Amino acid sequence: xxxxxxxxxxxxxxxxxxxxxxxxxxxxxxxxxxxxxxxxxxxxxxxxxxxxxxxxxxxxxxxxxxxxxxxxxxxxxxxxxxxxxxxxxxxxxxxxxxxxxxxxxxxxxxxxxxxxxxxxxxxxxxxxxxxxxxxxxxxxxxxxx
Length: 145
Known about the structure:
This protein is an all-alpha fold. The protein is built from 5 helices and no strands. Helix 3 crosses helix 4 and helix 3 packs across helix 5.
């Protein structure tokens, strides 16, 4: 039995020593792959990419500040330079759609956050009630004589 233990232990130690640098190696490989194969600038329809674009970042910032409410799709962006960036990126119809999409995304994320907070509060309340109930039950029990 002991004869098998030492070789297995040695092989486990070798595996661990080689795997310790695995995440760093994976990170470097990913950087190299992204360098050699950057994401495309155009989407499958031949239009500029929206995800990660400057226009998307500007629109998300304006939505977070509430600048888009009560205005038309193109007037949602107050700076002329911001409008120019988005005009180059999208047609008015596409921009209107992206504006609605970003609003829906923000609402969804807000709803998920609120539901998580409510659920956490409910769970804490349940735990406190059960703990107090157990405490009351322990106090009302008659000692065994």
